[in-house]
Give the backbone structure.
Amino acid sequence: MNVAVISDIHANLPALSEVLAAIDEAGVEEIWCLGDAVGYGADPGACLDLLVERCDVCLAGNHDLAALGEIEISSFSPSAATAARWTRTALGDEGLAQLASLGDPATEREGIGLYHASPRDPIWEYVVDSEQAEDCLSVQEQRVALVGHSHIALYFTRVDELARMTSVLAPDGTDLRMNVGQWLANPGSVGQPRDGDPRAAWMELETESMRARFHRVEYPVETAAEAIREAGLPGHLADRLFQGH
Ligand code: ZN
């Protein structure tokens, strides 16, 4: 089965629209979303509508749970906390009910582990180095797992439990086969990339061959940034979209 994996949309409608267009062009049977539909961006309702309609799996991320009031936001940055409160109001009862209908932050599909953040902490842990990834693999039940949350397209791999983990950034065009060994891969972020490439990220996965391809898509960043400013959200949430970090 050919699958599109997306994550961390963060209410960025121009980015999500371009990614969905690219996904449609590629032709996939399913779309899996690893969470954070909302938070930071200015179009939570429209993004949620699209995600609920299009995705076969849609995990809840920490920002989704924060907007719902289901987790503490005391560890959020001030702008993330402001955005969570703004999102809650912007969504209204109907939008919040839709947000509450998203899945858990962890699930499994086609034998592949899907987690918003990490296998050992699906809500909060940023997996950014190989030592962490190694610790995650010791609790990860699946040979291959996919995570979001860090907004960095990358993967970790080792041939077996005795080997050391390798950490590799996955820029546009990265093409790999995850058919042997253990893997933890992050498709990158649709709506707020933090790996220095401001283009929206998504990953294509062929589940029989386990071939994964990392893609980046141009989108009108100015439109998303303007919407953030007009909504009265913190200005740096608009500015950072141009830098991709
Ligand atoms: Zn996120």
